[in-house]
Amino acid sequence: MLEKVKKVIACELDTRLVGELQKRVQGTCLANKLEIKVGDVLKTDLPFFDTCVANLPYQISSPFVFKLLLHRPFFRCAILMFQREFALRLVAKPGNKLYCRLSINTQLLARVDHLMKVGRNNFKPPPKVESSVVRIEPKNPPPPINFQEWDGLVRIAFVRKNKTLSAAFKSSAVQQLLDQNYRIHCSIHNIEIPEDFKIAEKIQMVLKNTGFSEKRARSMDIDDFIR
């Protein structure tokens, strides 16, 4: 990478690996092209960058993806290696058994492509899981959606992705949460709430009017959720 680009900024938690990396470039013409940030990448402020290339510890795959996708200014693309099943979830489409909240949230914010499989025998020692390399290209500009609100919606829908939305929104915990949120929303926007208001009736009316009462999250695409 150092031979092909203007600058490499590496983020590494293991100080032994940092020392090894510094030793490899020390005294070469490549040394001044390398900057190493020592620490946890999830807790590190990412600098401006054009391309991200990473072989991640697999347990931080999901938070790292969303740290990247919510990073500003936009980058051009990321080439990342993940556990195979995680990679397949990223690219899964409605109707696929792996389609989940991760799939739709990632695809809302980015174009995701599965590039190649990486067998366990490519590693020493071989891990227990297979891997895949994925390319992620952020959508620029991003969709005009409040991501926190969007994620709240799909979180409820995908808790039981095989249930109808009507059933998913009948949960008392969900209704209590939405009732609190709706009352705050009305207070902020000076909307009067009738004395006989019931959040359950409001939810079912919205689902019926949009035609989604009997739809299931597993088969709904991004446009469905935007509606």
Automatic annotation (TrEMBL):
Gene Ontology cellular component annotations, sorted alphabetically: nucleolus
Binding residues annotated for S-adenosyl-L-methionine, in chain numbering: 1, 12, 40, 55
Keyword terms: Methyltransferase, RNA-binding, rRNA processing, S-adenosyl-L-methionine, Transferase
EC primary class: transferase
Cited SMART domains: rADc
Annotated ranges, domain Ribosomal RNA adenine methylase transferase N-terminal: 1-140
Catalytic activity: adenosine(1779)/adenosine(1780) in 18S rRNA + 4 S-adenosyl-L-methionine = N(6)-dimethyladenosine(1779)/N(6)-dimethyladenosine(1780) in 18S rRNA + 4 S-adenosyl-L-homocysteine + 4 H(+)
SUPFAM superfamilies: S-adenosyl-L-methionine-dependent methyltransferases (SSF53335)
Entry's EC annotation: 2.1.1.-
InterPro entries with a match to the protein in the record: KsgA/Erm, rRNA_Ade_methylase_Trfase_N, rRNA_adenine_dimethylase, SAM-dependent_MTases_sf
GO molecular function terms listed in the Swiss-Prot or TrEMBL record: 18S rRNA (adenine(1779)-N(6)/adenine(1780)-N(6))-dimethyltransferase activity; RNA binding
One Pfam short name: RrnaAD
Protein purpose: Specifically dimethylates two adjacent adenosines in the loop of a conserved hairpin near the 3'-end of 18S rRNA in the 40S particle. Involved in the pre-rRNA processing steps leading to small-subunit rRNA production independently of its RNA-modifying catalytic activity. Part of the small subunit (SSU) processome, first precursor of the small eukaryotic ribosomal subunit.
Assembly notes: Part of the small subunit (SSU) processome, composed of more than 70 proteins and the RNA chaperone small nucleolar RNA (snoRNA) U3.
Family: Belongs to the class I-like SAM-binding methyltransferase superfamily. rRNA adenine N(6)-methyltransferase family.
Protein known as: rRNA adenine N(6)-methyltransferase
Organism: Chelonia mydas
